[in-house]
Amino acid sequence: MTQTEPDIKIRILLAAKRLFAQQGYDGTSCRQVCEAAGANIALISYHFGGKEGVYKAVVEHFFPIKELKSVNFADLDPIEGIRLLVSRIIQVTHRDRELSFIIQQEMLLRSPRRQTVMNVLVEVWSQVRSLLLRGKEEGVFTFDSSTNALVMVMGVALSHKHMVNFEDVFADEKIGVESIAAEAVRFILLGLGVKEA
User: Fold this and answer.
1) 147-154: which pairs have CB atoms within 8 A and are 24 or more residues apart?
2) Which residue windows are coiled coil (predicted)?
3) Residue 61 and residue 65: Cα distance in Å, rounded?
4) Which of 59, 66, 65, 68 is nearest to 111 (CA)?
């Protein structure tokens, strides 16, 4: 039975995502990706134009920008918009840890692939910034600097990714993603001056 073109492309992307997360971009070869995907190495060039193309396709295919774009945040109350967007950011980064780790690696390394990552991240964080500014304009949020406020929201929304590094500190308490998202949103809204968070 022959594999269809979409099947083999997805297998290559899944294998690449797993290997990029485990070994990093530089530590992963096209041959390794194809071996893990059960694909001929020539298919990397044919479908993606090389390893850089595979990386770009992994980010674009697995980052849920369509899911986030499906909501018109301009129609939402700023509080509800922040609540929804921060919850989704946490759920997405929790649901696909491999992609989250790949994005984090490139951001920390400030690699040539950083722009590929930024192309998807800027849309999300710009939406958060717009909600913050609109909330301040409407008198719902209180902060001095929109940049500092955004950095704090980013820090809280992404901090759960580091929980695995501090398991000894958390004792044996297991916290689900829904609980993490709810507490993060509450913390952010209280920090923005919302009394009934």
Assistant:
1) 149/192, 150/125, 152/188, 152/191, 153/82, 153/86, 153/128, 153/188, 154/125, 154/128
2) none
3) 9
4) 59
As given in the structure block, the two tokens for residue 16 are 């690449």
CB atoms within 10 A of CB 102: 27
Each residue's pLDDT expressed in tens, for the chain with a length of 197 residues: 345 667 899 999 999 999 999 999 999 999 999 999 999 999 999 999 999 999 999 998 998 777 777 778 788 899 999 999 999 888 888 888 888 888 888 888 888 888 888 888 888 899 999 999 999 999 999 999 999 999 999 999 888 776 655 566 666 666 777 888 899 999 999 999 998 76
At residue 167, what is the residue type? E
